[in-house]
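lol ok so funny story. i was supposed to be doing the assay writeup but got distracted and ended up predicting the structure for this chain instead. priorities right. anyway since i did it might as well share w the group, maybe its usefull for someone
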Amino acid sequence: MDLDHDACYRAIELRDARFDGRFFTAVKTTGIYCRPVCPARTPRSRNVTSYPTAAAAQEAGFRPCLRCRPETAPDTGAWRRTSNTVSRALALIELGALDEGSVDALAGRLRLGERQRQFRRALSLHLTLAS
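and the output, tada:
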């Protein structure tokens, strides 16, 4: 897949969330690759190369940014697993998992830590909507 360098660079200059997970930017001078929404200082255009996937950037020898965590970008495996886990949790709640058990018990059943942010956020939203 050919990526338009100028269009990709505009997206990272604007930190445009519409492109999050659609391409990854590798910075030649640092050896790091990022999401377009990364809060780090925008690198110079001549120092960046865009890749269609995080795996492609990694194969080219770049390492993931510790600020924007490219592995958590939408449409990556980690993102889909989290979404699936939240969906499973909500289905179990609909079936009455919290009627007789606690949030801790539900988290254990899903093999999650009770404090996982994503789980708590979705659970809070569901409980708010249910009341």
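The chain has a mean pLDDT of 81. Residues 5-70 form a domain with the DNA Methylphosphotriester Repair Domain fold (CATH 3.40.10.10).
back to the writeup now i swear
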